[in-house]
TrEMBL record:
UniProt membrane topology term: Single-pass type I membrane protein
Protein name, UniProt field: Cadherin-22
Organism: Oncorhynchus kisutch
Alphabetized PANTHER family for the sequence: CADHERIN-22, CADHERIN-23
Transmembrane recorded as keyword: yes
Keyword Signal listed: yes
Residues covered by the Cadherin domain: 84-164, 165-273, 274-388, 390-494, 494-611
Amino acid sequence: IRPTPFNAILVLEIVDLLVALWLLHCCSCGWSETTRTNGVAKDETKEQELMSHERVKRGWVWNQFFVVEEYTGTEPLYVGKIHTDSDEGEGNIKYTISGEGAGTIFIIDELTGDIHATERLDREEQSYYTLRAQARDRLTNHLLESESEFVIKVQDINDSEPKFLEGPYIGSVGELSQIGTSVMKVTASDADDPTYGSSARVVYSVLDGERFFTVDRQTGLIRTAVADLDREKQDRYELVVKATDMAGQMGGLSGSTTVTIVITDVNDNPPRFPQKMYQFSMSEGAAVGTPVGRVIATDADMGENTDMSYLIKDEEGGELFKVTTDSDTQEAIITIKKALDFESKRTHNVVVEAVNKHVDPRFSELGSFRDQTIVRVSVNDIDEPPVFHPAEGTILEVQEDARLGALVGTVTAKDPDMENAPVRYSIDQSTDQEQIFHIDPVSGAITLGNILDRETAGWHNITVMAVEADNVSQISHSSVSIRILDVNDNPPELATPYEASICEDAKPGQLIHSISVVDRDEPQLGHRYYFTLAPEATNNRHFTLWDVKDNTAGIRTQRSGFNRHEQNVYLLPILVVDSGPPALSSTGTLTIHVCGCDPEGTIQSCNATAYAISTSLSPGALIALLVCMLILIVLVLLILTLKRHRKGQSMSEDEEDMRDNVIKYNDEGGGEQDTQAYDMSTLRNLFDFPETKGSLSESGPELRTLPQWIQGRMSGDGEAADFSLFKGYIRKKVEQTDGDLSVPPYDSFQTYAFEGNSSPALSLSSIHTLSTTSDQDFSYLSDWGPRFRQLAGYYAPGHPEEDGS
């Protein structure tokens, strides 16, 4: 028969059927296990338990149940039989089951107790089923045995292939690793039962890539198979790993996965310069630090294995040039370390070496991890300014007493581009504003142009400029320091103070003062001074001069018994001479005061008429004085507080009186008979207002009495009076009242002047009854006396005799 895929499947099904039949045979023969369970109910009494020892127990009898998975037959698959030893085969017992799959997956013959599986089972989904068995009386349906639990196990067959659950896999290994180096581990899982047969026993093998890697059949550990893995040639490999169950035997199932292995880099390649020589050119006037150029060495490695550093190997190149590494591009940057000179050397060959920073000692046998190249730098000539000799500057010296025009020194500068080229010299006037020095523009000779004084300035720093005669743009500068040498032209002088003091009881030979000297000169051999008394003091019998020989001198007494009341001051002239040359001298006068001293020698007073009196106070006296001052301050503060308190009380009383007056004047009053509320004399003299102290008399014309004003306005044609002016009159009177305290209060005046509009009681005033059409005769008002003269003036304007009132 030709082998076809269909035939292969048929063979596998036949093999599975034979295995299942063999398992059933084992279950019914040698592999069965009889299990007896007591049918004792939980609710039996203790007496029945004791009696059970005297008779044979009844209970369940069955075998261990197994069922083969993936059964493909058309008939229900026999699983096993449950039986109780109380069944005598008369058919009066009914068997039933309950639990997982009872009645659906598993059915039971009620009469015989045979159990069959009606569905195809998969152990990978559920490996066992737990059920409970019951034996009942067929007639009464009472339980004959206690309900018992049993398990039906699903017997495994090889129906699941191994699977790589964590794939695809990615691993890594360093290049040039030794054979057998571990890379990574792969694991395949099989859903079949690992405790039964070989269905879950998995072995591994490499399908693709076995030339470079191997895999352990049992563990799945991948290892290197060669030692020459080179990342620079191939940086990754892809393997196909297969996992087969049944321990790799025929008929086993398999699964595969892809494993990507990345080759990591190691530092196995040295740096290499693409060229053995690089050429650059640079102007000789380039500043220090100017980049000359860049070179780079390549490295086949990657990452930090390509990090390198550069250095200059030759000594000459190291003096003129410096090399640094650009951390971003790994380039060597060559810069100028020292100024280049075309006239000295026109070409420089610099040896630059590249070295790996991270060298792996495992690969040291591969060779040196460094490389060298030559960088040739050509120097270009430029027109340079003159160069002074010496270049760092010149120090000259001249005597302080040198004459005008005397030669101080000479500076020299040369053109580096051409021999014997003419150079012109000058002094920077900003450094010699007083023009103390002159310079010859051709020879560079510096001469004196002004008188020197070392004591004023001991050094002079000037700047000399040199330019090419043919190109004045090429200019250079050099500093010249001129030291002024000292000449002894200042005499020595006594150092201050020029005064000394002695006690009246000074003893002969007592040292009373030490003399020192100041001299503005600074001789090269140092100072040496000589002291002596001036010729006019040679006959002095009171004091002597002692030369200490260290440029100081001491004054001593010659006698005792000084009396300040007889003579309290002595003048001692002292002659000081220096060592020259030439020797100069000066005379200084020392004033010596005679003073009164205490027994310890402390000076108390140097006045001839004053005596020292101790005026020191004891601490107790000082404290008493401070206490007295404090008491005086407290008394002053207390008096000021009392005065302020009394002033406050008087002000509050005045405020209360004013408030009482306001309240009293706010009362309406009792009419003309009430003479207590306010001064009636003021009302009686209503038109005799005093002059206002404010600005009212200054801001307008003098006010006239109301009757005269009204009569003036109503003369002639009998025109009605203008009451707006009357209101202005009232307003001015109010302002006068506010400004004068002697007139009636504002409230009383307002109440009298205006009583309001629309009053239910009507107005008591007759002012508003004035009308040209009124028939009432008011001439009787003139007979009421002077008090009603004003009112009569309003209502009886036809009486000419009152116009002047």
